[in-house]
Amino acid sequence: MEKQIKQVAGYVRVSTMEQAESGYSIDEQVEKLTAYCKARDWNLTKVYKDPGFSGSNINRPGMEKLVSDAKSGYFDTVLVYKLDRLSRSQKDTLYLIEDIFNKYNVAFVSLSENFDTSTAFGKAMIGILSVFAQLEREQIRERMTMGKVGRAKSGKAMNWSNTPFGYTYRNDQMFVDEFQGSIVKRIYSDYLNGVSITKIRDHLNEEGHLGKDINWSYRTVRGVLDNETYTGITKYRGQTFPGTHQALISSEIYEQTQAELKRRQITAAEMSNNPRPFRAKFMLSGLLRCGYCTASFSVLKSHTKHGPHRYYKCNSRFSKKAFTLRQYGFCPSCNHDMKELEEYILSEIHKLQLSPGLIVPSNRNSDVGPLKDELKKIESQQAKLIDLYLDSHDLPLERLNERRDKLAEQHTAITAKLNNMAKPDVEPAEAQQLLSKSDDIFSLEYDQQKTLVKQLIKQITVYNNKLDIQWSFDI
User: Fold this and answer.
1) Fewest beta carbons within 10 Å, which of 205, 354, 387, 474?
2) Does 15 qualify as catalytic in the annotation?
3) Domain Recombinase, which positions (predicted)?
């Protein structure tokens, strides 16, 4: 006997504009689910929506709310237009059905495939269909990869969506823009003649030369110096192929420039006694700060029965040099799985790629004097806190820890305000240009993701149950 269905929750998802144009738009899915429920005399209580989210994983706000409500018993059936709207991953599909829906007595119905898990046949078919959905996705990915490799081998440009400064793109080819090309050559020449990147930037802006329709910045000048495309080659997935476009500089000049960039970085690092930033192996190195003791984070590796495991860990938990009252109170920060933390940051950037309108023009208050004075008072109180404990052995450790935590929270809050009032490192137009370099940051290589993260994010304050991201631009 089939399960008597009364309360139905609809779920709809679309990831790209192409899917919407192919009949998978949110509104069209809702319309089909509504009509289906009406025909079956089912009560469609709510529709959970995830517009602009990929089906490759289940880390989506609408899906998370659906799972939460399923556990709370708000409905007895989940209805989708098509199986891949739930997930394109076999593992995730079976997890949702077996570990969530079945466990909490919720049936799953897919309209297009015409089955539901309240029947024996439906339970058998769901596993089979999810396998084919996964297979189809992998085949599409394989065909796309083969097509891109073939394009790269033929020498065609792989960055047609973001043509490098100095070139124009038409008829599936890159052509030299004579004026912009002369600026590219000048940038390389000036740098090898000892001019700093900052000076090159200032000179170009003073002369009124625009870079890709916006003023030049340190990052855009550095991007020109780093771009091997100017030597006449094209790259894909770490492989280099001869390009069909005209070179603007020779390979020798490019190699000399890379050597000079590295030499200047080493010199600057040694003068400032700081770790060399270009050697940072991990995406969030140098960006993370503990929300409890303000210390930085490092990556540690442990070995488990499943193999090596990396995680980010607050430095004050094993370094005596970091600022913390470690002798009298242990920093409560926990370890954070490296992969999970990095994927969360990438997902936040991906949301901005999908909604670039969230980036707003800078409009900040420059009156920071009172806040700076208040910050100095807090820092003075923090410095005196240890002395207070040493001079007064009657002071309970619990009170000391409470006072320490309160001062740390105040310090973090005021610092955040000051950072928000400062001029942004990246202007809105530049931020949008950086985000447009790829339609999906998850499709980039790790090093490319790392570069983009460090350009877009100034600092990440880490707590045990939340993250505060300080962007390099206004949002």
Assistant:
1) 387
2) yes
3) 164-267
**Which neighbouring-strand residues pair with 110?**
80, 115
How far the first Cα of the chain sits from its last, in Å, is: 54
Model confidence at 159: pLDDT above 60: no
Q: Are residues 248 and 314 in the same domain?
A: no
Among 60-64, 192-196, 277-281, 385-389, which stretch is predicted with the lowest mean pLDDT? 277-281
Q: Which residue has the tokens 């602009």?
A: 52
For residue 392, the SS3 value is coil
Instruction: Provide the token pair at 146.
Output: 């083969």
Tokens 């289940």, residue?
A: 58
Dist. CA 314–CA 296, nearest whole Å: 6
Give the pairing of strands 167-170 and 173-176: antiparallel
What's the pLDDT tens digit per position in 387-406?
A: 665 555 566 667 777 777 78
Using CA atoms of 412, 348, 331, 388 in order, give the dihedral in degrees to the nearest 10: 0
User: What percent of the chain shows pLDDT beyond 70?
Assistant: 72
| 132 shares its domain with 231 | no
Q: How far apart are CA 216 and CA 430, in angstroms?
A: 9
Judge if 330 and 292 occupy the same domain. yes
* Residue 8, token pair as written in the block: 């139905």
Q: 298 exposed, middle or buried (CB, 10 Å; 0-12, 13-18, 19+)?
A: middle
Domain count along the chain: 3
Boundary (domain end) residue, out of 279, 314, 335: 279
Given 15, 89, 316, 333, the catalytic residue: 15
> Any residues with CB less than 8 A from the CB of 58 and at least 6 apart, and which?
64, 67, 87, 89, 92, 95, 96
Q: How confident is the model at residue 225 (pLDDT cuts 50, 70, 90)?
A: very high
Question: Six-digit token pair at 59?
Answer: 């880390």
Report the length, in residues, of the chain. 475
The continuous run of DSSP H or E covering 12 comes out as strand 7-14
* pLDDT-derived band at 47, boundaries 50, 70, 90: very high
The helix-helix angle for 218-226 and 428-435 (nearest 10°) equals 30
